[in-house]
Amino acid sequence: MKHVLIVSNDSKSLLDFRWSLIQELRRQGTSVTLVCSQDTSFAKLSQAAIVDDVTLIPYAIRNSGLNPIEDLKFIRFLNRLYRFHSITHVLLFRVKPVLYGSLAALGTQVKAIATITGLGYVYTQTTLKTRLLRLITNTLYRISLTQTQWVFFQNKDDHQFFTNSGLVSPKKSSVVGGSGVDLDIFRQTPLPPSISFLMVARLLRDKGIWEYLEAAKKLKKKYPHVDFKLAGGASDNPASIPVQDVEAFCQQNKIQYLGQVSDMVSALRQSSVFVLPSYREGMPRAGLEALSSGRPIVTTDTPGCRDLIGGNGFVIPIQDTQALMEAMEKMITLPYDELCNMAKQSRVIAETVYDVKLVNQAILEKL
């Protein structure tokens, strides 16, 4: 009988992005065990695991940095799980689980299936430290991915980068629609009668937070009736922005900072246009939710972000506040009917490319 182990850094991503896949595995009679960090959403994950008869094992997975001793412990921990818990397949999400979960499969009968969810700050920043980390990470990918049965990517650019760099074979890799979006939860709703903008992202510099806030500041002076909103919480990422800095800027410039939003359905329903001026993404989850909700989009011409656009919005260069402001102003001045046409096209893209059922089916076919 199949016994699938799923490894991810955090409990929230398993709940938000992978639970429909887990439930489908259970419906098929497959045993499922989860490994993730015991973080703020772990208690909620534990309750869901009990309901669906899923085994949950906590393990403190560090999101960033290289610590050879801790990393070797993680590999040994996973290898023992593979061997002594009759694991037949392992699904690996996020950087460290992919790197070390694949290596742990060496010498076992476990079939490892990895998903590259994005490349992160190591590939978006150009400091001496990140260049060194990139060299090390590429080497680890090149070694570890040889142990995988299949590798999924969430955008075409990352897939091309990995294949062109010799990190993965094109014969055992493919692209899926991110983590997918539940079209029944994020239903298309009418655009509000008055225009407003919403950006959803962790407070990281390379998400384009400051570009959005500066553009919103200037536009708010010109269009005081338009609302500009930012949703997203703090992060331990090296590129993080202090929450107090964002709060102070928003308060001073009449921008609404919503903090960490739990009800994204309502946040999108109350907004007209979704904005994400990120420097690079795997496939932005909030962007998929905006597509499914039927929201026009302004985003950057960069991996993961440009995939959201197809007659439903505008793309701009990264780190270009002026271009962002101009694209947002176009949205303000467009006739309501044109915005509604963009909204309909967003929903079409969600239905044809990013439906979570399509993503889950692609993964299940490899088991």
Notes on the structure:
With 367 residues, the chain is α/β, with parallel strands linked by helices. The protein has two domains: 3-175, 3-Layer(aba) Sandwich (Rossmann fold); 196-353, Glycogen Phosphorylase B (Rossmann fold, 3-Layer(aba) Sandwich), CATH 3.40.50. Helix content is 44%, strand content 17%. It contains 15 helices and 13 strands. It has helices spanning 11-17, 19-27, 42-51, 68-84, 95-104, 121-124, 128-144, 156-164, 209-222, 243-252, 264-269, 285-293, 321-333, 336-353, 356-364; strands spanning 3-7, 31-36, 55-58, 89-93, 111-116, 148-153, 173-175, 196-200, 227-231, 256-259, 273-276, 297-300, 313-316. Helix 5 links the parallel strand 4 (89-93) and strand 5 (111-116). The longest helix has 18 residues, at 336-353. The chain is globular and about 65 Å long.
Strand order of the largest sheet: 3-2-1-4-5-6-7
Count of helical stretches: 15
> What is the terminal-to-terminal distance?
12 Å
Structural class: alpha/beta
The largest pleated sheet is described as: 7 strands, parallel
Keywords:
6-stranded parallel sheet, Rossmann fold, 44% helix, 15 helices, 7-stranded parallel sheet, 2 domains, alpha/beta, globular, 367 residues
In short:
The chain is an alpha/beta fold and 367 residues long.
Helix and strand layout, with pairings?
Elements: E1 3-7, H1 11-17, H2 19-27, E2 31-36, H3 42-51, E3 55-58, H4 68-84, E4 89-93, H5 95-104, E5 111-116, H6 121-124, H7 128-144, E6 148-153, H8 156-164, E7 173-175, E8 196-200, H9 209-222, E9 227-231, H10 243-252, E10 256-259, H11 264-269, E11 273-276, H12 285-293, E12 297-300, E13 313-316, H13 321-333, H14 336-353, H15 356-364
Parallel strand pairs: 1-2, 1-4, 2-3, 4-5, 5-6, 6-7, 8-9, 8-11, 9-10, 11-12, 12-13
Helix pairs in contact: 1-3, 2-15, 4-5, 5-7, 9-13, 12-14
